[in-house]
């Protein structure tokens, strides 16, 4: 673990409310208000409706809006507003039922298939395929032939058949969830499948349920009103939204006004359901992108200006010098200084250790030298000098020039540094062309690739160049990454935990290689590591960092045999050694 | 070692089913046999791909076994499933490598710690509460930790929670899969001390799976070295680390860096010479 951990207090929320933050999205918020408002009005229809929905007033047919009839009257002189309010009941009840059935079957079928696997999975998946392939509307019509004009039967059928789509989504999330270590841990604790699903799986899935539910609500509304329009869902004189559209359509030529009213309500509701679904999906995406606890705000510019002040150029023959150097991160709790006024000097041809545990600031220091701090971090005081030139506070364009040229990086995970889609040769060639170290045509570049891969002791460079990253072992990949770093013949190589992800026998080889490269090329290497064994093996000098401060600095002999700071002593004592004679237990 | 070992592995084999029709299945573990005695710590050492984690998962019933037997106190548990397998949770427990993944982030620590109790006989709310408080105290965490979420704890603290969960029902053996490799060295030392202390007070055995020979030497009584799914060397940890017999163990020992520059220089020289000899 090399990255500076975000402060552990940052996230205390366990379950994130999927609606949290929806008020900052005006469209989705408005849609939510529309749906809630109309639903409430429909529920309160007996209180709100100015007239009974079936009372006819044949003297005032098709009257248009008036004080007595706010939305006018229909062809039989019935109050349109009242009919809309009452008519929403079968419609929304139908939609609600369909959604309940949809969520219930989608959730339970998906979860059972995804968690239990085996035969249960096979049977359920086969059933879902059938459900998806039969035309649900025709089945619904068949159901209506049996249960004539039954809104409930029709909408239950629609919800059930549509649930197949949801079940598939839930199943695949569940497949991923059951591989989580905490699910294994619960199994080892002796919990049965029902308990694991209820405690560990279901709460994680509910967040994913909402978006499909809202999108389906829109569909269900369209289908319900469609059935109403055909007169299949609600028996005649009783109002329903679909039925009102049907009645309005009959007098469309005469007076299209009624069509706008009934159609408008349906359209508005349908649109709102969709907008809420979209809004929730966007919110979910935002949450996923927001890195835990970190704020995206940049560090206050006042602090930055301080760092930009000219400071004294170091005079000694150091290849890299860092003076009074501080790094601050903007977090949700305000600015946090992770590196506090440190200073050190690296001489040419030296392997210099940056030693510390997680949170010590060692990796952040290394990355900042390359100008690779995350957007919420910045160097807030001091300066860094590479071979007499100031590199801290340089604009990105100039940094790009230095990066990969005079100063290069080898990171912990070689796979991250390489693109899985391209061969080693083509990636190395690209770096070579960019650094401009192989003037001449293709042949020169190819020759340089061979030379670089040979210099990192890869046995068959031509074969390696033809391969894709996944075809090589971790140790070979790390050698390739080192070769890439060497392409620009850097003066300083920053190696950030270069062997932490590797097996110990492979690690020994990589450390040998770093030492050889230093001897051959005389470049300086900054080795960032938490492993004191690696430091003892490889470094000439080192600094020990704790919580952003340097607590110890000196030759490794000084550090290991004459440590001054209690933290250094504690680190050395805690590091297990295969050479130590006394054991913890025998 | 007493008469019946706590855990006995006899000719264990694990194959992963092949992808495609005519390809043979992949062999992960082949004919592995060993025993873990009462309150004993046995280390399983190997590099990535050696199958050490698979052995642990096979013992826990998380990976299907294709051959051989796993015996707990002399009882065959190899193919137990369902209720019978769940009943074993009183005797076999586990601590996983990644304390960030092994605790459900959405559950307060107290509820995670109550899980092993859920599987046992029903207890009153007060009893569970007392039990959890006792567990937290035992692993050196404050009592109010029960109401907080995993995200509010550091890696070392989370591993203590995982340890507390493992010892909740005083198991006979705990499978520790790289329990400290994600931790800082100072935290690792404290976690290992805690494990030793719990072993003395509770008398549980450990199957300690790791890649780090240096930890093994300080922590385990016996060591098995695993390569490509087979045991290549077995013996007291001090013998394996100081006088390795198998060529692979020798390479492992030679490659482990020690936190002592002068000694390490000497060891490196010896390793380079040995490598030169081997290639010559």
Automatic annotation (TrEMBL), chain B:
Keyword field contains ATP-binding: yes
Region Disordered: which residues? 258-280
- Name the Gene Ontology biological process terms: peptide transport; transmembrane transport
Keywords assigned by UniProt, alphabetized: ATP-binding, Nucleotide-binding, Transport
This protein's source sits in the domain of life called: Bacteria
* Gene Ontology molecular functions: ATP binding; ATP hydrolysis activity
Recorded hits in InterPro entries, A to Z, give: AAA+_ATPase (IPR003593), ABC_transp_ATP-bind (IPR050319), ABC_transporter-like_ATP-bd (IPR003439), ABC_transporter-like_CS (IPR017871), Oligopep_ABC_C (IPR013563), P-loop_NTPase (IPR027417)
Q: Which residues form the ABC transporter domain?
A: 7-253
The similarity annotation says: Belongs to the ABC transporter superfamily.
Its protein name is: ABC transporter ATP-binding protein
Q: What is the lineage of its organism?
A: Bacteria, Bacillati, Actinomycetota, Actinomycetes, Kitasatosporales
């Amino acid at each position: 673990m090399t990255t500076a951990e975000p402060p552990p207090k940052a996230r205390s929320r366990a379950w994130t409310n999927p609606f949290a933050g929806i008020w900052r999205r005006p469209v989705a918020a408005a849609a939510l208000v529309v749906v809630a408002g109309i639903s409430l009005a429909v529920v309160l229809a007996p209180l709100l409706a100015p007239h009974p929905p079936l009372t006819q007033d044949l003297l005032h047919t098709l009257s248009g809006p008036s004080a007595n009839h706010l939305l006018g009257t229909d062809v039989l002189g019935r109050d349109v507003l009242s009919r809309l309010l009452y008519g929403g009941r079968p419609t929304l009840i139908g939609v609600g039922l369909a959604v309940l059935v949809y969520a219930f079957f989608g959730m339970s079928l998906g979860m059972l298939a995804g968690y239990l696997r085996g035969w249960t999975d096979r049977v359920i998946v086969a059933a879902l395929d059938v459900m998806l392939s039969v035309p649900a509307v025709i089945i619904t019509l068949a159901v209506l032939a049996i249960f004539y004009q039954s809104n409930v039967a029709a909408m239950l059928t629609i919800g059930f058949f549509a649930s197949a789509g949801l079940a598939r989504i839930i199943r695949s999330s569940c497949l991923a969830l059951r591989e989580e270590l905490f699910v294994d841990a619960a199994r080892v604790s002796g919990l049965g499948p029902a308990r694991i699903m209820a405690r560990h799986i279901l709460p994680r899935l509910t967040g994913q349920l909402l978006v499909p539910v809202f999108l389906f609500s829109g569909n269900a509304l369209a289908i319900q009103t469609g059935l109403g329009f055909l007169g299949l869902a609600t028996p005649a004189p009783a109002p329903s939204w679909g039925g009102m559209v049907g009645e309005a359509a009959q007098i469309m030529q005469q007076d299209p006004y009624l069509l706008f009213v009934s159609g408008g309500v349906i359209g508005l509701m349908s649109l709102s359901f969709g907008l809420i679904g979209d809004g929730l999906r966007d919110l979910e995406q935002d949450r996923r992108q927001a890195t835990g606890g970190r704020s995206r705000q940049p560090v206050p510019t006042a602090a930055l200006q301080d760092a930009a002040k000219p400071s004294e150029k170091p005079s000694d023959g150091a290849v890299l010098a860092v003076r009074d150097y501080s790094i601050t991160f903007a977090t949700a709790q305000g600015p946090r200084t992770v590196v506090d006024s440190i200073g050190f000097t690296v001489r040419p041809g030296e392997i210099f250790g940056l030693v510390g545990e997680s949170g010590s600031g060692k990796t952040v220091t290394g990355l900042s030298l390359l100008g690779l701090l995350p957007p919420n971090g910045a160097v807030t005081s001091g300066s860094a000098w590479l071979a007499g030139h100031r590199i801290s506070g340089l604009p990105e364009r100039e940094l790009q020039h230095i990066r990969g040229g005079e100063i290069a990086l080898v990171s912990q995970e070689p796979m991250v540094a390489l693109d899985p889609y391209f061969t080693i040769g083509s990636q190395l060639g690209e770096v070579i062309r960019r650094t401009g170290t192989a003037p001449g045509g293709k042949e020169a570049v190819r020759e340089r690739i061979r030379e670089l891969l040979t210099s990192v002791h890869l046995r068959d460079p031509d074969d390696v160049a033809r391969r894709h990253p996944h075809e090589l072992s971790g140790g070979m990949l790390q050698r390739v990454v080192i070769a890439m770093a060497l392409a620009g013949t850097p003066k300083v190589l920053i190696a950030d935990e270069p062997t932490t992800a590797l097996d110990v026998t492979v690690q020994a080889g990589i450390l040998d290689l770093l030492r050889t490269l230093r001897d051959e090329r005389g470049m300086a290497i900054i080795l960032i590591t938490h492993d004191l064994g690696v430091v003892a093996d490889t470094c000439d000098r080192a600094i020990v960092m704790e919580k952003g401060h340097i607590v110890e600095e000196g030759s490794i002999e000084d550090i290991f045999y004459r440590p001054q700071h209690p933290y250094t002593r504690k680190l050395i004592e805690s590091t297990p050694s295969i050479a130590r004679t006394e054991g913890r237990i025998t | 070692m007493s008469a019946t070992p706590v855990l006995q592995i006899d000719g264990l084999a694990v194959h992963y089913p092949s992808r495609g029709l005519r390809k043979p299945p992949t062999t992960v573990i082949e004919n592995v046999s060993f025993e873990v005695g009462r309150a004993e710590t046995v280390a399983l050492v190997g590099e990535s791909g050696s199958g050490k984690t698979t052995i642990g998962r096979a013992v826990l019933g998380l990976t299907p076994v294709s051959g051989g037997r796993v015996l707990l106190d002399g009882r065959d548990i190899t193919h137990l499933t369902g209720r019978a397998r769940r009943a074993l949770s009183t005797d076999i427990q586990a601590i996983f490598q990644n304390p960030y993944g092994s605790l459900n982030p959405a559950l307060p620590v107290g509820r995670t710690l109550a899980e092993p109790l859920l599987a046992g006989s029903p207890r009153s709310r007060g009893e569970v509460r007392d039990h959890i408080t006792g567990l937290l105290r035992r692993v050196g965490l404050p009592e109010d930790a029960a109401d907080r979420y995993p995200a509010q704890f550091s890696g070392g603290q989370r591993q203590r929670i995982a340890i507390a969960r493992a010892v909740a029902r005083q198991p006979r053996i705990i499978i520790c899969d790289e329990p400290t490799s994600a931790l800082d060295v100072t935290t690792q030392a404290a976690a290992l001390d805690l494990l030793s202390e719990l072993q003395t007070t509770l008398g549980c055995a450990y199957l300690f799976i790791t890649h780090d020979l240096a930890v093994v030497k300080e922590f385990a009584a016996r060591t098995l070295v695993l390569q490509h799914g087979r045991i290549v060397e077995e013996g007291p940890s001090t013998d394996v680390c100081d006088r390795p017999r198998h060529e692979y163990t020798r390479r492992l020992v030679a490659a482990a860096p020690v936190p002592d520059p002068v000694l390490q220089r000497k060891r490196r020289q010896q390793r380079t010479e040995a490598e030169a000899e081997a290639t010559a």
